[in-house]
Amino acid sequence: MSEIQLPDEAIALHGDSVSFFGELYRPAKLYIAEDKLVVFDDVKEDLFKVFGLPGLNYLYGFSNWGGGPDEFSMIDKEAINVSGRQFEILYRNKLYRYQVGDTSFIPQETNSSDLILTRVNPINNFKRLSDHSYVFNSDFQKQGKEFCLLNTSTKEERSFGEMKEPEAPELLGKRDAYYAKAICASEHQGRFAAFYYHRPFFSVYNTEGQLLKSVGISLSEHHFDPSTMYFVEPYATDDYIYVMWILMGKQQVEMDFNAFHPEILVFDWDGNFVNRLKLDRPIITFAVSERNKELYAVSFMDEDINKLYRFKLPE
Description:
This protein is mostly beta strands. The chain contains 3 helices and 26 strands. The strands form 6 sheets. It has a 5-stranded mixed sheet with strand order 1-19-18-17-16, with no helix packed on it. The protein has a 5-stranded mixed sheet with strand order 2-23-22-21-20. The longest helix is centred in the C-terminal third of the chain and has 6 residues, at 250-255.
């Protein structure tokens, strides 16, 4: 495992806000679909709110909470994949595909490979690697492996990634928290990365499940604590990985929301450190447009319920 020493100072990014006539009650995730920003707002109406880029002008809303055509309930934000303008939603073990149009989501034809048949239930961290290849969390209780690769065309499924029981006595019985993570993937690079919530650690793999690099962030003092968050909300672009760096517990954040200005660490797909950015807003999730060299985010402050934030990225 290689170790990275972060620079002492982060580059400060100052965001400007764009307001729209609606409200974002429960924004869970942001996605970039070429020249569109899609906000997954987990509410009863207009689950997906679409904005034009780079102006962040509101275009339309799509889908409601329910069981009718093009309606969903209890969507996992980490089971949505975007490739160009193609928008995939894994819902009840079936893939629903849409094109993100200028005025609406356009349903695509479904086929037999859209039914996801796997030994794993439930499916978590479902990430697209190519047209028919996906990676997600394995059922380590049964498989003893960390990840699962699935080819939806051939139905071939393979588990990989050794999971060792933590040696320290205080970690016994905390395996779920020890391996809790978020995954992001790049079809362009043919790689995916796993960032661990409660450890200052991430790994990069190729589409065959081969471990390419493991990286730890050097800290003056570190011990495993399930209440401390390190990495959350990784976002992949063709060239880089952006990930929120928290280094505190949820309770600490809740004690003073206004003081919570998260950092964004940037890495390339070889696992090399690129940049350390500091935001001036207490954001909850974000997305990056390399085309526009901008980062878009939503805040959890009450006064920001109808605002999107935009940050210019450094060169």
